[in-house]
Design a protein that fits this description.
Length: 323
């Protein structure tokens, strides 16, 4: 989940308090099938008002885009009044502990995972809570400064503010706000982070690496490992195709393709599937090479890139020679 500030409906000229009311209005407008998610989010927003350390509560991804259903988890971020990096670790830990202690108030719990995540330059704590009714909360606890930095970089237009501390400067300005669906009607939403040509090249290169590994494992007779590498190659195909189609978070691959335009899949993607059968796996690897080429070229047209053509040619030759 991207740890970034996002978008919520706030009237022009609105105050921080108005932003909070807009978040409540957004919660109230959720369809009945999202009642369980609304229960957890509303209680967490209530608690944020009582916790001085908490600066903001944001919810995004499928909920923020208006694409959620009864099975969707709650992807959220809690901004803490703490310095960035290790100096803020203690305060972020305190906020994390407060959330964890309050989880039973939100519903019957099955289990909770708490761990550090994100890049080493940040201090981000993740809380994943599984509730007995099937609801899942995936919450990142992070310094508010990190959220503000990402917001100013243009990140996560699909994130909705459910709580913003009174007097928090520089956040939720009306000109930053977008509708809950994640974009201005009639326009294409900006990417959460700009996809570069270098990123396209890297994804394509990784895809070819996975396919050459699949060939290696097939030659060794290690079908499980070959199967695993094909699955990993398919992830890069999905990421490239998502980038080509202008999806918000293309590095998430398949989910972004389906969220963005579920009927627009990479041509031939179904032929990249195979069970634990050596001839079928080789046929799937060869099909994957063709689909990876198509997806890479499509992504490079949208985000000009220096594709790894020598690597692609080499791997293709290897895959199509007789074993």
């Amino acid at each position: 989940m991207p740890i970034v500030a996002g978008a919520g409906p706030e009237p022009a000229g609105g105050s921080t308090a108005a932003g909070a009311l807009a978040g409540r209005a957004w919660l109230a407008a959720l369809p009945d099938e999202l009642a369980a998610q609304r229960r957890v989010m509303a209680r967490l927003a209530d608690l944020c008002e009582t916790w001085p350390l908490v600066m903001s509560l944001l919810v995004g991804c499928s909920l923020g885009r208006g694409a959620a259903d009864a099975l969707s988890d709650i992807d959220a971020a809690l901004g803490v009044d703490a310095p960035r990096g290790e100096p803020g670790a203690a305060m972020i830990g305190t906020a994390e502990a407060m959330v964890a202690a309050a989880l039973p108030e939100m519903g019957a719990l099955v289990d909770v995972l708490r761990h550090r995540t994100g890049p080493g330059s940040q201090h981000v704590r993740r809380i994943f809570a599984q509730f007995a009714d099937g609801t899942q909360l995936d919450l990142a606890v992070v310094a508010e400064a990190e959220i503000e930095t990402r917001r100013r970089a243009g990140g996560a237009p699909d994130f909705i503010p459910l709580y913003t501390a009174p007097g928090l400067p520089g956040t939720w300005q009306p000109e930053d706000q977008l509708p809950a669906g994640g974009g201005v009607p009639g326009s294409e939403p900006p990417a959460a982070y700009a996809v570069t040509g270098g990123q396209i090249r890297e994804w394509a290169f990784h895809g070819w690496c996975m396919l050459i590994d699949a060939d290696k494992y097939l030659r060794r007779g290690s079908l499980w490992e070959a199967h695993s590498r094909l699955h990993e190659a398919r992830h890069y195909i999905w990421a490239l195709w998502a980038a080509a189609q202008g999806a918000l978070y293309p590095w998430h691959g398949l989910s972004q393709v389906l969220d963005h335009e579920p009927g627009n899949l990479p041509p031939g993607i179904e032929s990249t599937l195979a069970g634990l059968d050596a001839p079928a796996l080789r046929a799937a690897a060869r099909a994957s090479a063709k689909v990876l080429t198509t997806a890479s070229e499509a992504a490079a047209r949208r985000h000009p890139a220096n594709l790894p053509e020598p690597m692609a040619a080499y791997v293709t030759r290897v895959l199509f020679r007789e074993p």
